[in-house]
Amino acid sequence: MSAREIARAVRAGERSARGVVEESLAAIAERDGEVHAFLLVTGDEARSAADAIDAAVADGRDPGPLAGVPVALKDNLCTKGIPTTCASRILEGWRPPYDATVVTRLRRAGAVVVGKTNLDEFAMGSSTENSCAGPTRHPADPSRVPGGSSGGSAAAVAAGFVPLALGSDTGGSVRQPAALCGTVGVKPTYGAVSRYGLVAFASSLDQIGPLAASVEDAALLLEVIAGHDPLDSTSIAQAAPEVTASLDVGVAGLRVGVCDELVEGTAPDVVARVQQAADALVDAGAHVTRVSVPEMRYGLSAYYLIAPAEASSNLARYDGVRYGLRVPASDVAAMNVATRTAGFGPEVKRRIMLGTYALSAGYYDAYYAKAQRVRTLLIEAFSRAYEQVDVLLGATAPTTAFPIGERVDDPMAMYMSDVCTIPSNLAGHPAISVPFGTGDDGLPVGVQVLAPALEEARMFQAAAAIERAAPAPGSGTK
Amino acid sequence: MSGPSTGWEIVVGLEVHCELQTKTKLFCACPNAFGDEPNTNVCPVCLGLPGSLPVLNEQAVELAMRIGAALHCEVRSSSFHRKNYFYPDMPKDYQISQYDQPINVGGYLELPDGSRVGIVRAHIEEDTGKTSHRGESGRIHSADYALVDYNRSGVPLVEIVTEPDIRSAAQARAFVAELRGVLVAAEASDARMEEGSLRIDANVSVRAEGTEQLGTRCEIKNLNSLRSLGLAIEHEAARQVAVIDAGGRVVQETRHWDEQGGRTVPLRSKEEAFDYRYFPEPDLVPLDPDADWKARAAAGVGMLPAERRARLAALVGSPTSQQTDQLQAAVDQGLDDLVVAAVEAGAPAGLALVRAVNELAVDLVAARALDPGSFAALLQLEESGALSPTQAKTVLATLRDAGGGDPGAIARSKGFEALAEATLEGVVRDVVDAHPDEWARYLAGDDKLAGFFTGQVMKATSGKANGKAVAGALRRLRG
Lengths: 478, 479
Fold this sequence. Notes:
The complex is a heterodimer of chains A (about 475) and B (about 475).
Chain A: H1 3-11, H2 17-35, E1 38-41, H3 43-59, E2 70-74, H4 101-108, E3 112-117, H5 151-158, E4 164-168, H6 175-181, E5 184-187, E6 208-212, H7 215-225, E7 255-259, H8 268-283, E8 287-291, H9 299-314, H10 332-343, H11 346-359, H12 365-388, E9 391-395, H13 411-415, H14 422-427, E10 431-438, E11 444-450, H15 456-469
Parallel strand pairs in A: 2-3, 2-4, 7-8, 7-9
Antiparallel strand pairs in A: 1-3, 4-6, 5-6, 5-10, 9-11, 10-11
Helix pairs in contact in A: 2-3, 8-15, 9-11, 9-12
Chain B: E1 8-19, H1 58-70, E2 74-75, E3 81-84, E4 94-97, E5 104-110, E6 116-126, E7 130-134, E8 145-149, E9 156-162, H2 169-185, E10 198-208, E11 218-223, H3 226-245, E12 253-258, E13 263-269, E14 279-280, H4 291-299, H5 305-316, H6 321-332, H7 336-344, H8 349-358, H9 364-368, H10 372-384, H11 389-402, H12 407-413, H13 421-434, H14 436-443, H15 449-460, H16 467-478
Helix pairs in contact in B: 1-4, 2-3, 5-6, 5-7, 6-8, 7-8, 7-10, 10-11, 13-15, 13-16, 15-16
């Protein structure tokens, strides 16, 4: 059942929120032992929240647009009184004294939080294997990864545990697992959704985004979480975009550019699906052309300087002094080192070292400053492309879900998983991944729609059209 | 030990951290208060909890712009950076500060002696928490444990950096004293060194007199009072001269002022200096105050000490060096408004200044509240001779304690009324009548006898007579 249908039924008194939540919890209990999408299931809190929704409905009070809809939260979103671990040992035992703004907005909208989902430690990774609690498995093939870093949230939606989940997308961490798991994943415009309460990885790139089984549900969730928040200085001073209204508009006359850089280097079966989606848009009345944004080729390199640099600073606070893990030692400095050595996993350490180096005296201009200039060039290149087309189309990920363990010892291969998603983060632009059939291996393929800043409505317009044209699951590419 | 030997010049630049007196902290809504129970004025933001984000306090920006205006700086668009280093009292393990784009650049402060000290910049940054080391020894390195109070974490600071324009310990002290007056006048900071709301680091170097090239500098930390500032500069300069005289070279390093030992000791060398890995703070947007806001901030600067001194000097006319000291004291003590108002009400300026800084300063709070009209009326009585200086001081003390009143009535109630002109003249006549021989010699031109008659009048009035008034009465009787 879709989130929209659940909310309608609960608001109408046709279904109880409690009943919906019990179904969700039962599905988790039945299958999450295998999938391991959740780090924590908050059954008691979910049941009492659902009862409160039902009481509101009974009293004739407005229970909110997402009344009774179970949602899963990536475990880097702060939840008051509920452990928030970022899948890291270093946050062992920490319970935030506050809710993230998105969590507050979800609760206010009547959504029911059923638990916290697995992720790559501090959202650093593309497979959800870098978790101190062990990997999440792909719901359709447990020998494969669900993608990452929001792999737990994507798997929770794909497995049917919840209709909606939130993830965070710094370089593709919502869209790439969405593509691999066959769900919809959205990276909103930077500043459209408040980051307050999202544990920072790379502050200038991080953005919270919805995962859902349908484009419409993703749009509903985005409308609830987006909009100005005075607690985030980078939050854009405007109301949430009205994206649900654009779903039925169609694409007649819309100019779509199939972006060379978002298909080159991508597996042939994935390229075929992108081409098929482009053809479907033509059939729906869009003008489809080929465009090139060559500066995208430098995106990955720039990203792996900027993101680790910001991370090296953002993660400094995990020093054992105030909260989380503390490994005792002879003095404060030794305690800092012992705590961080024991508390962080290898990928997090690698990025802290990369980022520290990139910011060091004598190297700053060659690395960090230069990467920021690449970012400016990329934004200018996007602007030129958007003079010719309204949206860009490409692959979300270069391949379908890969086997667990395949890329863990090869960081560069793992980093390449995000090559198609990173440009939108660097530019601060919105992008969405929509499921579009499967690859040769029968696993889901996602196609990506990119739009200029704050043009979410246009992006959803195209995404809805692609979703309508998507092949039925299991059908071939030929 | 005193300053360096002759032939050497001291060169000092100061870095002054002042806490802004905002209602709330720089990036959150916690109260900015001194002396509360530890760790009570804290929240996710100033504790740097995961997921928290800073939101810039507008009042802090306004006070920073006021400081810029008061120091004749250019107030510009600015941005924030992160300064990264690990320290337990810094909850994010980075400090949000302004780096290559500070809000205020290029000003100066003129000191009472007319010298000017250039201001390089005055930028906004956040304060850290406070660590206290605990254990039997009471020393940092052998402490058993440490406690951190984060109440101060995130309190807004403005760091004021001077040019190396200061040439003596005395000038450094005068600079800080004057700066304190400016910060208080701008209502930007309470500038209390003893509470840590004004903290000074001094960059000290020496060079041979007459040379231009700056010597290698050392930065001295832990200067908690004007006294330690002056002593530390003198000791450090002497130490550097001794190093050079002995054929050595001064090493650039950070040194700590050891108050008890009366010396500076090394803290860390240039090689051990931190690499702060500054980069633009991604959680904040650039700060771009419009012209209106800058103008509002500048208008919020009250009358500065230099203007106050100039105003008093104009009232006095051409002040003597003693009067220059007095008018500076009046400004420092916050009594200049009273003096000005009293003069406007008819008081003689010089006398008003003297009585303010000598007699009224005994109780500054009461003095600042004194009714200037009453003060002026009293000063007129003294000036006219109706009250002796001793009597005037007595009446003034009563006025001060009461906040004002009728000085004539107070004088009468104290028995000073007998000295009204007519009464005094009667006493003088009696004395003259009792000493006819002396009077005859006085009339014949022996002026020394004026002293004799004055003495007799004093005796007869138990010292209540005003000497000037007695002399006047004697002259009138002589005809």
